[in-house]
Amino acid sequence: MLVVYCLRNVTWLSGNHGWPDLIACTITILVHLKWRSLFASMIIGTTAYILMVNFVF
């Protein structure tokens, strides 16, 4: 439910606005599969998203 809520307003076809969301979701999934830690996956995924939005895209 949280993923659907977070991604519901993303405009996938305008510019590169969907890329940070997609990359952050992928990082979150990979971290969770590797360490099985909810806290680590949330913190690392959120940090990756914030860094990408502010410095990359």
Low-confidence stretches: none
**Sheet of most strands:** none
Count of DSSP-assigned helices = 3
- Strand fraction band? under 5%
Q: Which of globular, elongated, flat, extended, rod-shaped describes the shape? A: globular
**Share of helical residues:** over 70%
Order of helices and strands: HHH
Radius of gyration: 12 Å
Structural class: mainly alpha
Question: How many strands in all?
Answer: 0
The chain-level mean pLDDT equals 88
Distance between the termini: 26 Å
Question: Quick recap of the structure?
Answer:
This protein has helices at about 1-5, 20-35, 40-55.
Written account of the structure:
It is a single chain. The chain has 57 residues and is an all-alpha fold. Helix content is 74%, strand content 0%. α2 (19-35) packs antiparallel against α3 (38-56). The longest helix is centred in the last third of the chain and has 19 residues, at 38-56.
Summarize the SSE layout with pairings.
Layout: H1 2-7, H2 19-35, H3 38-56
